[in-house]
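Case study B.
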Amino acid sequence: MKHTHILLAHGSGGAMMHDLINDLFLPAFDNAELRKGNDQAVFEKQDGRLAFTTDSYVVQPLFFPGGCIGDLAVHGTINDLAVGGAMPLGLSVGMIIEEGLEIDTLRRIVQAMHTAARDAGVPIVTGDTKVVERGGCDKLFINTAGIGVIPDGVHIDGGSARPGDAILLSGRIGEHGIAVMSERRGVRFSTPVVTDSKPLHRLVQRMLAVCPDIRVMRDPTRGGLGATLNEIASQSTVGIEINEEALPITAEVQGACDLLGLDPLYLANEGALVAFVPETCADALLHAMRAMPEGEYACHIGNTIADMPGLVRMKTGIGGTRVIAMPSGEMLPRIC
Amino acid sequence: MCLAVPARICELRPDNMAVVDIQGTQREISLMVLDGEAAVGDYVLIHVGYAIERIDEEEALRTLELFADLSLTDEAFGSASPPLTEDDV
Amino acid sequence: MSVLASFRDSSRAAPLLERIRARETGPVALMEFCGGHTVAIFRSGIRSVLPEHIRMLSGPGCPVCVTSNMDLDRAAALAKLPGVILTTYGDMLKVPGSRESLAQVRAQGYPVEIVYSTLDALRLAGQHPDKQIVFFAIGFETTAPAAAAAVLQARARGLKNFSICSVMKLTIPGARALLDMGEVRVQGVIGPGHVSSIIGADAWRFLPDVYRVPVAISGFEPLDILASIDALLAMLEKGNADLANLYSRIVKPGGNTKAWGAVTEVFETCASSWRGFGNIPDSGLALRPQYAEYDAEHRFPIDIPDSVEHPACRCGEVLRGVIEPVDCKVFGTACTPEQPLGPCMVSSEGSCAAYYNFHQSTHTKTRHATEQ
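Model:
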């Protein structure tokens, strides 16, 4: 490609756009469906119900310890399908690029998407690119949508938790939030913590094989575990009790939280899921989850109760009780 | 009222600056208001980017003893003194 | 320092709690002055493990909460001056002033930057020589040295585009004002650990000496707070009003004289307006005349319209310990962390936010139910 930066003409539908797609996107995302060059991807008839989801990624900075907006956009949408019990069939990618973005930066991000999609075994089957004037967006926004198939007999729903269910968490919390925060202007610090961003569909399929009766699954992204538990408590009208000492929080995440006055319960995760399951399945599930790399730190963090529906409470280290409220607004570092 | 966190000094830098480590998180801070010389390995308390005090290991151990031994608190703080009356409080 | 981890070893809590339960003091009301303690108490669930006859009151030690609307309005006005970039700590962004919060000011396109440290504000001043960097300084004695150090560094570097709008406050005059009002009966005080690291444990001797109220200077781990409660109860049991320093790993009797020296070099005391208390003489920190060029109020004289308070907000009484957050009519209804009417619901240190987030959601929900 002749240019070093994205120009408005790269989005104009003419020769330059053609070059961009042929030089940058097609080789990276290459698959049979894309090669057809049609306006849509076509799937053969599937057994099971279809799941459909979309998410937009506007993370700043574009690169952060352990990942970038590209792999995040692939993993995030795969995970939104996965926690519904769906096996992803394919993703779409919509790119909104700010005029002036370095083509090398875009290439690295597209490469990261390619790697993420290939490793997950989920093809990117259709896409779109727009270029907006400088100031029209912040460097790069990515939207991904995905379609997946839910096998018969699987009925995961946010409203299905019942009193007495075990609550399992597949990974350590707060790592993505801290990794991104470490690169923010005005806060900057160096940390060994990297994002936990990873696809969870294989873990979910393994879990469903062990226990098809999983009632609720969700990935605690923005708002963290605290927000997710509150959502489910209210959707399912159950009380939730978790145990502080069971929560998998590394010393590194806790250290960064102590420095900035943040609560790891409300930090974003991109490679963890929380599952509400019949208590009788809990041990078998934990065993199966821990046998996979993405479930290595799986643990039983608490249970649902009939008492105080809608409320999430935590048993603290000293034996006290605290309420975990829904988080409010932007997470800001604080001094007091 | 003020969030502060214990940290270990891991590098001294020019202009009275230092890099500190908080369980793996590292940040540059200022030693400008810390009393006395600081050395790599010292533990200090960090507030809004400044080391504001040293952490005294011996005192920390003494406090832990106090947590564990019931009689020490009474010895230290419960000893007799003029009794309070209603008017005093 | 491996010993520091022991302060987080919750297995040490059980013997402390046993002792607290065994103390024969009768009903007592203890106050934590410091908002950091308020948060730690709620976060660790200390209230839920204390015997019922021990009541914990939250004091006026949240610097965000005691900042008056007038001072918040001044910060908003400074942010709107052409060429000014207003910098402040993250805590201040969402606090509603008379008309708007700094977050709303920022949304209108005025530059408001969150900094973690005054060092970041100084760096901005270096990066933007064509802009005026104003640092809106809130905080108590712990935070004041960082503001003083920034002014001293700005002078040493010859920075001409850095200034401070100081609404910083001193805790001792605040504590005295609270006790002098006599509205609440406080039988023991949990002394602010980090403030004391600067001003020294001995600065609190006036509590036992003048007011006959025992004080325990405390750290912020749940164990620290439990041990301080126990020490206060031990004193009350024996009728002994004294000062106990349970944070001696940090706090020295005389404090950090170098840090306080920097503060007194740059600042002098002034009357300051506290939310809920009004004007308290000698309770604020203003830049000394010889540092006037770093004083935003001196450099950017502005007229601000009269400040107004939300008529339903009772933050003032909450700060004085006269009412508990749940006693306020708008608590959890019109006033929530998403839509705060007063600062005590905004700051994570504020009693209302602490109640709402960690404790009293049950009460709110029950109240809603009964009111409907």
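The first strand of chain C starts at residue 28 and ends at 34. The remaining cases will be described in the next quarterly update.
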